[in-house]
Here is the input.
Amino acid sequence: MTFSNPAGNAPAAASGYVRALLELLGTRNPIEALGELLPWLDHRLRGVVDATLRRPEKPGKWSVIDVIQHLADSDLVAGFRIRMVLSEDRPTLQGYDQDRWASEFRYREVRLGQALDQLRGLRMANLHLWKHLTPAQLERVGLHSERGSESAGHIIRLMAAHDLVHRRQIDRIFDAAGVRA
Here is the structure.
């Protein structure tokens, strides 16, 4: 399955998107899956030239650089959302247009090292927090502007599945460019 979550259709497509993400994750431990991303990227990106990292899968689609910066920003957003859920009663969790972020924040112009450093710092901070959440904390909820009530544990599961989706996407982009694992 190819995953797509365009902002203009997010509320209408939310339940199908979430269901597909959770099916992809299956019974995997989300914290373990989240911990795999950085070593996977280190291995997958080894020896790949910058021009290949900046080439989109096809016109109008993201490049590997775009995906990595998106992953960093996703960690920023998820980390903030979970911190809000833990510290406030049923806070609003604002959705955002990921394609607009990619365009407005010029993802394609970001240096690989900068994107990886951001992702690494955010992921390590988030994992440190998320690994130590109590069952009661994992059940605390916020109200997502497009998807409704979401618990901290649910957000963590979505993030783990989100990683898997984008790992597949990077593999597809590399396949289109003739880069083998």
